[in-house]
Design goal:
The chain is an all-alpha fold and 224 residues long. It contains eleven helices and no strands.
């Protein structure tokens, strides 16, 4: 029986978290690797959604809406992964003449999201923002390690491919992607039945004050 990426899940996940090159080589060669990579991204998005779920609890969102909100957040989170993967692949092809498969880049990036499985920890008061930053840097380093290991393009080309790919995504989000982002936020609010807060600093204020700060007049916020 052929061994799949699912069979070696523990080894691959731990290797990615430890930034080991062989883990990314495995994710690019074993059967079912693409499914596993995408599953990791969805679970990372779900973990982040649960971490931010305090807002849903404080707004007394119904259980059915709460579950739907979590799954929608995971799906919307996955779109960021898709755009980052595509933009990085384009940068590799256009600027570094790398004839890499877009699926290889997608698998490597998906596995690089392994540290984001701990995103539930962003719910910790006062530690949410630092943890989020650490996990983002950790994910980037994993992507860099995987790009270098799988595409064999060298550390600096891999670095600039990942960075420029991320920059392209940020530019698109702030230009032609604004309507798409607004639609995603509207869907999230609609499913939850309340106006959700995505900014971690705003969430920390909610934890400190006990109610969503958007519901508190500005003067009252200052007095508290």
């Amino acid at each position: 029986m052929t061994e799949t990426a699912i069979d070696r899940l523990g080894e691959i996940l731990w290797g990615a978290i430890a930034l080991q090159s062989n883990a990314f080589q495995l994710i690019d060669t074993l059967p079912l690797s693409s499914r596993l990579a995408f599953l990791i991204v969805l679970l990372a998005g779900l973990s982040q959604a649960i971490g931010q779920g305090i807002i849903l609890f404080m707004n007394r969102v119904k259980p059915s809406r709460f579950i739907l909100s979590l799954f929608l957040a995971a799906i919307l989170y996955a779109f960021g992964y898709i755009f980052w993967g595509l933009s990085t692949w384009l940068v590799c092809y256009l600027f570094f003449e790398q004839d890499a498969s877009v699926f290889s880049v997608a698998r490597v990036l998906g596995l690089a999201y392994a540290p984001e499985l701990f995103s539930i920890l962003i719910a910790l008061p006062y530690l949410g923002v630092p943890i989020s930053i650490i996990l983002s840097i950790w994910t980037f380093l994993g992507f860099l390690t995987g790009m270098n290991a799988v595409l064999e393009m060298g550390m600096w080309p891999a670095f600039w491919s990942a960075v420029l790919g991320w920059v392209v995504v940020q530019i698109l989000q702030r230009t032609i992607g604004r309507p798409v982002k607004a639609l995603g936020q509207w869907l999230a609010n609609y499913v939850a039945g309340v106006e959700l807060i995505a900014d971690l600093k705003e969430i920390e204020k909610v934890l400190e004050l006990g109610v969503p700060t958007k519901a508190i007049p500005p003067n009252d916020r200052q007095n508290k």
